[in-house]
Design a protein that fits this description.
By secondary structure, the protein is mostly beta strands. The chain has 3 helices and 13 strands, in the order E-E-E-H-E-H-E-E-E-H-E-E-E-E-E-E. The chain has helices spanning about 45, 65-75, 120-130; strands at about 10-15, 15-20, 25-30, 55-60, 80, 95-100, 105-110, 135, 145-150, 150-155, 175-180, 185-190, 195-205. The longest helix is centred in the middle third of the chain and has 11 residues, at about 120-130.
Length: about 210
Amino acid sequence: PHSRVFCLSLHRWPSGTHIYYFHRMLILVIGDLHIPHRSFDLPPQFKKLLVPNKIQHVFVTGNLCTKDVYDYFRTLTSDVHVVKGEFDENVTYPEEKVVTMGSIKFALIHGHQVVPWGDKESLAMQLRRMNADVLISGHTHEFSAYSYDNKFFLNPGSATGAYSALQPQTVPSFTLLDVQGSRIVIYVYQLIDNQVKVLTKEWTKPAEDS
């Protein structure tokens, strides 16, 4: 069911950054929106990039916090995976979830289970326990992406730039994943000085784990 691969082409135009979709697969990874308690809405610069029916999957790291935000993601795609943050109104969201895309297993948690928050060793323990290749977590409201012990760890940050106990001011961010077999291209979108900046990272699952 996931044989079609998505490739993302990014171009800069005077009007800003645009996403061009070429009939391939894309995963939106996003979280810690805290709408409406800490932020009114997604930044408009982000909203205009997210086109309905072009994103095939959405992974949400929690703290949406309301049904309206969940319903918004459902306008992008019917395949929305959410794990529960400590401020989510929907208590039926799972604490954790494993989703397989092709040869790669993604483990999703919010991140409040990890002590200290965002600790590399604690995150690695969570990933080993969940027996997956990539750990996606949130909670810190700060983007991070790195490989460790042949695995990959991704935190998309807060899409609205909502404050946290550790970060009174944060850079709004989300990520898009292009999964190509055992290879992932990660596109990082950050709103800096009201301009969308794009970073690109890559990770390949080791052959012995494929």
